[in-house]
Structure formats: C-alpha cells, structure tokens
Amino acid sequence: MRYLGQSFGEIIPLRQLDIDESVFGQAVQDLHMRHEELYGYSMRDKVVEITEVRVIALGEEAAEASFSAPTGSDGAQHGTRQV
User: Fold this and answer.
1) pTM of the predicted model, to two decimals?
2) Which of 2, 36, 48, 74 has the least CB density, counted as fewest CB within 10 Å?
3) Is the confidence at residue 30, as pLDDT, over 70?
4) Where are the domains of the chain?
C-alpha cells in the first residue's frame, strides 16, 4: 500500500481472512502507523492505493485423481451451436 503519487509502498498484512470494509479500514490505519514509524509522519488526508496483493494458500496435497468419461448414451441430440 502507498499514498497516491508515491513511488514506493509498504507491505501491510491484513489482520483477518474474512475481508470486508472494516478490514481494509484497519489496513489503512496500519499504513499510517507504519509510515510514521519509518518516516516520522503520515499523510492521513491522502488517498491510499493498494498496489499489489500477495496470497499464500495452504492445504493438504491432493491424492492422485482419476477421471473417467461417463459411459452410455440415450442417443438423443441435446444441443447444437454454430461454429
């Protein structure tokens, strides 16, 4: 995240997984605090940009999957389309 017009931003983690307006509001407050820590001031009246989003997904490794086409047919034509 960064202030509008800045060239560089700061990585500001979101505090929860269920993202709504309040979560983004807290992220903006966290940007102001981080900016104050780094530079001694914040620009609370400036527009804040989200410049990138990083996602880490964790889960169990899937077992080998096997796919097979359905067998049999009723012989009827179910649809057409122009190609």
Assistant:
1) 0.64
2) 74
3) yes
4) 2-49
